[in-house]
Design goal:
heterodimer; A: alpha/beta; Glutaredoxin; five-stranded mixed β-sheet; 38% helix; B: mainly alpha; Helicase, Ruva Protein, domain 3; 3 domains; 7 helices; 65% helix; 0% strand
């Protein structure tokens, strides 16, 4: 109490500025949170595989189960892997949009028939049309765990060296294809066109 | 649509067996229970229950499954969830256990595939240290500000004293 300095009257301006900034910071965070809570994809988890090599797998082909495709056989060019099942209602919704994209033939679109009866799957493709260059089947769903698949539909983009570059959970829309998938694909095409300065990973 | 189907069927039911009227509601109920199975294609899933080797393994499995979050219905644990993927993951977890993996290895297996989200108790690392220490830092910061304000006020008691005496 023997402080020789006289007590200042109001709060110093610095303290007020900090207080106000802090308040608006919290307010901003709150508004951000409220806005985010309305987003339809707020429950979607980022894939743990982005930037990592796609899991190694060996899966039979839907149209001829005697043929097994190895993950290494798909290297060399990027591919889009679309997880679907004939039991999945959203896949049916997504189908025309995916077909339109696949028909551009910009990239191989591979189907991943998940936990489905092959006869149901074949009938589904017959009814709606088959947009896939190749359909792999995972009846048991064991390989799907390696891919971190939680629900159908899900779509992955894997690059030429087998690294997962992008994933979308839920039905693809034209908007998602244009704003996310195609830009990612363009990135891959640019990287591929460039002469390799660094050795591939 | 289901109601219409039901009505159609129940009408044909009454036509064919007009004698036993009491049996009809039971029959309709049985049919109503069958309808969802008939109309919705189901994902393939192994209906056999999980086979535990002994009670200790079962207890360990339940403890571990309660620590893991269902990746689809995100507010349920893997033990509680009835989602398709939760069934598959429970089976996978039990298989890994029976292969002799430790709880930590099984958790890491799932984190590698589904991200840290699957853990109800995430491990502390540099990325989430703000979440761990942020609240403590805020409380300490608040206490610091409070102490500073109180100290400032206490210095102002002298001039305030006069005015207060007037009341």
């Amino acid at each position: 109490m023997s402080d020789p300095r006289p007590a200042s009257r109001p709060l110093p301006p610095v303290a007020i500025v900090i207080g106000v900034l802090f308040f608006f910071g919290l307010l901003g965070l709150m508004i951000y949170g409220v806005m985010k809570s309305g987003a339809p994809d707020r429950d979607i988890l980022p894939s743990a595989l982005i930037g990592k090599p796609a899991p190694a797998f060996a899966l039979p082909v839907l149209h001829d189960p005697s043929i097994t495709v190895n993950s290494s056989e798909l290297r060399g060019a990027p591919y889009v892997l679309n997880v679907w099942g004939s039991w999945c209602a959203a896949c049916r919704e997504e189908h025309p949009i995916l077909t339109r994209f696949a028909e551009t033939k910009r990239v191989r679109v591979i189907g991943y028939n998940w936990k489905d009866e092959p006869t149901d799957a074949l009938r589904w493709l017959e009814q709606l049309g088959n947009p896939f260059v190749l359909v792999l089947t995972d009846i048991e769903g064991r390989t799907a765990i390696d891919w971190g698949i939680t629900a159908a539909p899900e779509t992955f983009l894997v690059d030429a060296s087998g690294v997962v570059r992008w994933k979308y959970s839920g039905a693809l829309s034209q908007r998602v294809i244009e704003t996310q998938l195609i830009p990612e694909l363009e990135k891959l095409e640019r990287d591929h066109a460039k002469p390799r300065a660094t050795p591939a990973e | 649509m289901r109601n219409r189907v039901l009505r159609l069927r129940s009408e044909s039911g009454t036509a064919s067996r007009t004698t036993d009227r009491r049996a009809l509601p039971v029959w309709v109920l049985a049919f109503a229970l069958m309808v969802p199975v008939l109309t919705l294609a189901q994902a393939v899933s192994d209906p056999t229950p999980l086979q535990y080797r002994d009670a200790a393994e079962e207890a360990r499995f339940h403890a571990l499954a309660a620590e893991l979050r269902c990746v689809q219905c995100q507010n349920q644990s893997l033990a509680d969830s009835n989602a398709q993927i939760a069934h598959d993951l429970r089976r996978e977890v039990l298989t890994l256990m029976q292969q002799g993996r430790t709880d930590a290895q099984i958790k890491q297996f799932l984190v590698d595939r589904y991200g840290e989200f699957v853990l109800y108790r995430p491990v502390m690392d540099t990325r989430n240290s703000v979440l761990w220490f942020g609240p403590v830092a805020l409380v300490l910061g608040g206490a610091g500000v409070l102490a500073w304000v109180v100290r400032r006020r206490s210095r102002q008691v002298q001039p305030m004293g006069d005015s207060e005496e007037r009341w």
